[in-house]
Every structure is written in structure tokens, then in C-alpha cells.
User: Which sequence fits this backbone?
């Protein structure tokens, strides 16, 4: 059997499925459910999903930027006389000192920026991705 | 435009079908606009018209996918409720049909994922579906016998409900080439079965 003959056959056989009708209607049940439980979900500020994603990323990055700038302050603490180089001590100590550096060098403004960034990303991106 | 017009005039049946589609989409768009309106009674009435118009289509499609009429009806209801909630996010009202059939397929996929977690329920549903198949087995179901679950699903969407390969690939989250090769494999299984039976 040729490929297009098989396609025609499949289209024809599936017509019985796609065009069959049902005696019992579900309109009443659907409308009852709308009356009782549902609120219309508004489009996010009247903009579509792609723009929401782009704006979410821009806001997220924008808010996160001061935090990033703050974080760069602890980088020189790792550098030796010849500039930035890998620490010579054990990895665990290095992680500990890194966390301490972040704690001490990130200002209140920096932490606020990190929080703002996370909240913005959550509020804008998550609903958009759910759609 | 001229090219389209000449194409249409050479194929009168196609032209009539296109005209009917255009009229239906325009009616859909009117209903969608009314359903979006603030006036509750009018908006409910308009949405009820859309449900009336598409209930058979969605129930058939979902039955083709899950092969259990009760489950298909439940999923169709869920789809309409979701459509109501998200109606304001529909960009072009004339594309209501394409939009709602995608919502229905998403609803089916969501249910399928949930089924994988609740394995006992899955077993029960499969048994019910199999029982239904034995009672009434139309031609399209007989044709799909040699295919596996995924192949059946893809053929129902492609040949029954005019999804494109690209739409399926995007909604299912599998590469376009993989969708095509599954369909090719399914078709060769069916061709083989038909040759053997004749």
C-alpha cells in the first residue's frame, strides 16, 4: 500500500471518530462549574507570554545587578600579589571563607536587591511558565 | 491573493469548505468577544454557545486519546473550565478552535503524567478502557491495534484532529524528527497488518 493511500485511509477511518455526536450534553455541567468555582484569570498586564518572559528576565537581572556588583567586592580578598589566583588551601576552607566574604561584603542594599530579584522572577516568570 | 483566489476557484469543494471554516471562525470570534465582556449573563450565554459548538469535537478527540468515554467527558469539562479562566489570554479570537484543542491535549497530557504517579488508578483506567474496546470497536481502533500507546496518540491527533507535526512536537515536548519517525513506524505497522489481513 502506498503512503498517500494509507494517509487517505487513516483520514477516512478517523472521520467516524472526529464527527460522531453525543446524546448527552455536558454544557449544563460546565456552566454549573463556572457559576460555582471559577474566576477569570487576567492576562498578565495585558501582555503576552513572550513579553512577560522578557520583562521578567530584564527586571530580574536589573534588580540582581547591584547584588552582583556588591559580590565582586570580595573577589580581591582571594587574589595574591600577582592578581586573582586559585586559593592554595583546602576546598572546604575555601568554601567557608567564600561564604564569610559574601556575608561580610554584601550590604543591606545588596541583600534587598537579591530579594527583589527573586520576588520579581517568581511573580512574573512562574505564572507565565505555567501558561 | 490572486494565487489563492485562482486556487480556490479551481477547487470548488475546497472553496466551500474554506468558506464554511471562515464563517465558523467568525462566529467563534463573536462568541469569544461576548464571553470576555463584563456583563455576566451575556458572557455566560456566549461561552455556553462555544461549549455547545465544541463539546462533541473535544469529547471525541479525548476519547480517541484515552479510550474511556467517562474520562474523556471529565477531561473535556476540565478543558472548558480552563478555557473560561484563560479566555483573556487568547490573542486572536478567530483561532479559538486551535487554542481549545491544544488546551484539551494539554489536559490529557497532564492527566497522563498524574496517572504515572498513581499506578493503581492507571491500572483501573486501562482495564475500563480495554473493556470498552471489546464492547464497541470501530474501524479506527482496529487500525491502531498494532501500534503502541504513543503511536496511537500521534495518529489520532494527526489524522483525526488535524494537529500539525510541529504542534505535537511543541505540546508533547519531543523533537519534530522523533514525532515523524514514530508516525512513520506506526504507519508501516498498519500497512503490514493490512497486507497480512488481505
Assistant:
Amino acid at each position: 500500500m502506498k503512503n498517500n493511500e494509507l494517509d487517505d485511509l487513516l483520514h477516512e477511518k478517523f472521520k467516524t471518530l472526529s464527527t460522531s455526536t453525543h446524546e448527552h450534553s455536558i454544557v449544563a455541567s460546565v456552566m454549573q462549574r463556572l457559576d460555582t468555582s471559577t474566576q477569570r484569570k487576567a492576562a498578565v498586564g495585558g501582555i503576552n507570554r513572550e513579553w512577560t518572559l522578557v520583562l521578567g528576565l530584564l527586571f530580574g537581572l536589573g534588580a540582581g545587578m547591584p547584588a552582583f556588583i556588591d559580590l565582586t567586592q570580595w573577589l580581591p580578598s582571594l587574589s595574591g600579589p600577582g592578581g586573582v589566583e586559585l586559593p592554595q588551601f583546602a576546598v572546604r576552607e575555601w568554601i567557608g571563607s567564600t561564604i564569610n566574604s559574601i556575608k561580610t561584603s554584601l550590604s543591606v542594599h545588596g541583600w534587598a536587591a537579591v530579594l527583589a530579584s527573586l520576588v520579581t522572577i517568581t511573580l512574573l516568570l512562574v505564572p507565565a511558565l505555567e501558561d | 491573493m490572486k494565487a489563492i483566489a485562482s486556487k480556490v476557484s479551481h477547487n470548488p469543494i475546497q472553496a466551500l469548505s474554506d468558506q464554511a471554516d471562515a464563517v465558523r471562525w467568525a462566529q467563534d470570534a463573536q462568541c469569544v468577544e461576548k464571553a470576555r465582556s463584563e456583563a455576566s449573563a451575556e458572557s455566560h450565554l456566549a461561552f455556553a454557545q462555544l461549549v455547545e459548538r465544541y463539546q462533541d469535537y473535544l469529547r471525541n478527540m479525548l476519547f480517541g486519546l484515552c479510550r474511556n468515554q467517562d474520562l474523556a467527558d471529565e477531561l473535556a469539562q476540565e478543558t472548558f473550565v480552563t478555557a473560561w479562566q484563560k479566555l483573556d489570554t487568547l490573542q486572536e479570537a478567530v483561532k479559538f478552535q486551535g487554542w481549545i484543542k491544544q488546551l484539551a491535549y494539554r489536559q490529557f497530557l497532564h492527566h497522563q503524567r498524574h496517572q504515572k504517579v498513581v499506578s493503581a488508578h492507571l491500572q483501573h483506567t486501562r482495564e475500563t478502557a480495554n473493556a470498552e474496546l471489546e464492547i464497541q470497536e470501530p474501524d479506527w481502533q482496529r487500525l491502531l491495534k498494532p501500534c503502541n500507546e504513543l503511536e496511537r496518540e500521534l495518529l489520532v491527533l494527526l489524522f483525526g484532529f488535524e494537529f500539525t507535526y510541529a504542534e505535537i512536537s511543541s505540546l508533547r515536548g519531543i523533537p519534530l524528527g522523533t514525532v515523524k519517525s514514530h508516525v512513520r513506524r506506526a504507519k508501516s505497522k498498519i500497512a503490514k497488518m493490512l497486507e497480512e489481513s488481505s
Remarks:
- Helices of chain A lie at 3-18, 27-37, 49-71, 91-105, 108-130.
- Residues 42-46 of chain A have pLDDT under 50 and may be disordered.
